[in-house]
Amino acid sequence: MYIPILTLLPLLAAANPMLIVAISEVPSNAAPGVTADPSSFCPTGTWYQAKEDKCPSGFIGCVNFARYSSVCAGSKRFYNDCSGEQGLGNFYNCANGFIGCTTRTNVCDLKGLGGAEALPVQIPIVAEGVGENAGWKCPPDTTYFGAGVCATGYLGCLGNKNDVRCSGKVEPGVCPIGTGIYNVCGNGFKGCSTNVNMC
To answer: Where is the signal peptide (predicted)?
Structure first.
């Protein structure tokens, strides 16, 4: 059984003013807390689980409806990352408003919430050894490595340039284990950091 979205829209808008429904119908058996992605940030066939909806597992981001119950249920195993279960992609914190797991590697380049253009993000140009810029700061004992510093294309905070993450192979937008989450912040920071207050 399906309930037309026009019937539910006033109730959904009252419960969550940021919700912009991108589909015409919602299954009547839809799991609570799963919302249509606000601005098509999620890949086709997935839904957006918002932080405010509080999955017991701590999951935030895009998930296939069939996997929602297994991803959201259980004890806390997601800590602003996607390591609690395979196949959920990487964790992003974007200037356009998207926060969470997705397999969409260009999520930070998409239009922002409500269809607004994504904020222009300027990669900070900092010399090796400089750990802060425009109000953000790398964690203690780390340095920001900007565009062109690492042969791998790695962007973010690291202990030193000889780190394998700077000299090995790194996929764009992916944070190797131990380097935190990938951020694209309105304050200009772009890259991996363990500093949860980077943006």
So the answer is: 1-15
CA separation for the pair 96, 199 (Å, rounded): 12
What are the pLDDT digits (tens) for 136-189? 677 777 777 777 777 777 778 877 767 767 776 666 677 777 777 888 777 777
pTM over 0.85: no
Cα separation, 130 vs 117, in Å, equals: 31
Question: What is the pLDDT confidence band of residue 12, given thresholds at 50, 70 and 90?
Answer: very low
**Do 142 and 74 lie in a common domain?**
no
3-state secondary structure 162-183: CCHHHHCCCCCCCCCCCCCEEE
Q: 49 and 60 in contact (C-beta within 8 Å)?
A: yes
Write the DSSP string, 68-92. HHHHHSSS---SSSSTTSTTS-EEE
Domain membership of residue 35 (yes or no) is yes
Number of structural domains the chain divides into: 2
Residue 114 belongs to some domain of the structure: no
Domain residues for the domain of 169 are 132-193
97 lies in some domain: no
The pair of three-digit structure tokens given for residue 66, joined into one six-digit string: 């069939």
**Is there a domain that residue 156 lies in?**
yes
